[in-house]
Design goal:
- By secondary structure, this protein is of the alpha/beta class.
- The chain has a single domain, classed as Spore Coat Polysaccharide Biosynthesis Protein SpsA, Chain A.
- Helices cover about 30% and strands about 25% of the residues.
- The protein has six helices and nine strands; from the N terminus they run E-E-E-H-E-E-H-E-H-E-E-H-H-E-H.
- A hairpin with a 2-residue loop joins strand 2 and strand 3.
Length: about 210
């Protein structure tokens, strides 16, 4: 799958990972690699530029050779703040970009054609937002965001204190793109140690489909 030349990817890793026991969840290991390394490998071929949204000392991510951008909003304001941060970074550093796509770094199996399908849905439905679905559930952290929405999102996050992605996207037309969830949900995410153990089991059993395999 060719990269989208006008799309910036933002890897969301700005949370506190309380359910995983704290620290950087994206640096937990799965199949001999960190979750972040797996996310980078899956996301990088799909976008023109890739950045990491993470708070704290950026040097702990130096090995990944990515720009590290901290939330513009203090106190761990959640993924919506990370998406805003990605939009603001793209506007300054990639002024030719039209889109930002967000990826959760705790979902190690996300599709290799994610960006292409989100882009196609936005263009087909003539909307500025798209998010992934599987198993009848939406996954708004896997979303495509038009740069034209940057000012509106800034107002919502900074001035209104908006924190829930779904509450903000409900204000706009949005395309939902369904991905098959069998035999493995490509948006399976590791929130707790038990989830990480299950991800190891799925990898070891060869249950991950070819289109979401590393």
């Amino acid at each position: 799958m060719s990269a989208a030349s006008d799309t910036v990817g933002v890897l969301l890793a700005g949370g506190q990972s309380r359910r995983m026991g704290g620290g950087d969840k994206c640096l937990r290991r799965l199949g001999g690699e960190t979750l972040l390394a797996r996310s980078v490998a899956r996301a990088r071929p799909q976008v023109d530029a890739l950045v990491l949204n993470a708070n704290g000392d950026p040097t702990r991510f130096a090995v990944y050779h990515l720009p590290v951008i901290a939330d513009l909003v203090p106190d761990f304001a959640g993924p919506l703040a990370g998406i805003l941060t990605g939009l603001e970074w793209a506007a300054v550093h990639r002024p030719e970009a039209r889109w930002v796509v967000s990826f959760a770094t705790d979902a190690p199996f996300f599709p290799l054609d994610l960006v292409a399908r989100l882009r196609a849905a936005c263009e087909s439905e003539r909307v500025g937002l798209a998010c992934a679905m599987s198993g009848g559930r939406t996954h708004p952290v896997f979303g495509l965001w038009s740069l034209d929405l940057r000012a509106a999102l800034h107002r919502a996050v900074v001035e209104e204190g908006m924190r829930k992605i779904d509450a903000w996207t409900a204000r706009f037309p949005i395309a939902h793109v369904a991905f098959a969830a069998d035999p493995v949900d490509p948006f399976f995410n590791a929130n707790e140690p038990a989830d990480l153990a299950e991800a190891e089991r799925l990898l070891s059993a060869g249950a991950v489909r070819a289109n979401i395999r590393s």
